[in-house]
Design a protein that fits this description.
Elements: H1 2-9, H2 15-31, E1 37-40, E2 43-46, H3 48-60, E3 63-65, E4 71-73, E5 88-89, E6 94-96, E7 101-102, E8 107-108, E9 112-114, E10 119-120, E11 125-126, E12 131-132, E13 137-138, E14 143-144, E15 149-150, E16 163-164, E17 169-170, E18 175-176, E19 181-182, E20 187-188, E21 193-194, E22 200-202, E23 207-209, E24 218-219, E25 223-232, E26 241-251
Parallel strand pairs: 5-8, 6-9, 7-10, 8-11, 9-12, 10-13, 11-14, 12-15, 13-16, 14-17, 15-18, 16-19, 17-20, 18-21, 19-24, 20-25, 22-26
Antiparallel strand pairs: 1-2, 3-4, 22-23, 25-26
Length: about 260
Amino acid sequence: MHKYLDILEKEDLTREEFMPVWEEFKKDLNSGKIRVAEKVNENWIVNKWVKQFILLGFKYGKIIEFQDGTIDKDTMGEREIKLEENIRKVSPTVSVRDGVFIGKGVTFMPPCYTNIGAYIDEGSMVDSLALVGSCAQIGKNVHLGAGVIIGGVLEPVGAYPVIVEDNVFVGAGSQITEGTIVKKGAVIGAGVTITGSTPVYDNVNGNIILPNENGQIVIPENAVVIPGTRDVKSNIEGVILSKRVPIIIKYGSKVELEDLLRP
């Protein structure tokens, strides 16, 4: 870690100095040796320096054309997935940027995309048309349904990563962004949108979940969340307005994942 922090503090850093350290940094991301966020004593600790180092990768990269026709910074590129890693990358239309940890038994269905800095733990599935944004942290045995968007945090600079804990099911077409934390065992129904500025209405306990001191929404363990609406004040005569909101309708429901679909 110290060598990476030294690079971050170096004011006159050159590309020639940076590149060898950058390649080592990506290897450490791929292996899970370093990660953007980690759970310590049941609390999530965000390593913002990891994100800052990723941003240096864009700063010092040069735009090139890769052999597959991709035009991108030469500091990026595709993550190599080897047979012995026991990962299913079902089609060439699955794209995983270099600098992503992938646990054993993870499945990627085509087409989908995972950005640099993400962490996807064992047994999880990224379904068709799903996006795992930069630095997102996905736990064990998570199902991200078709068309799910897990937001990234490369910009704005101070944003927290989205964290989805173990055994979470996220239904098709849902969007989870702005540093939201989804605690273990939660079920996010199809079409739910959760952001750091979206209050969540807990209809079981009769309260409203608001952003914490870091501006993050935290979805409780084993919560079942569906899309709903609430009325808003209308200044248009004869018109009743409402806005979409996430609603917790119960706790304790569990979605059984199919082991046969995993390597």
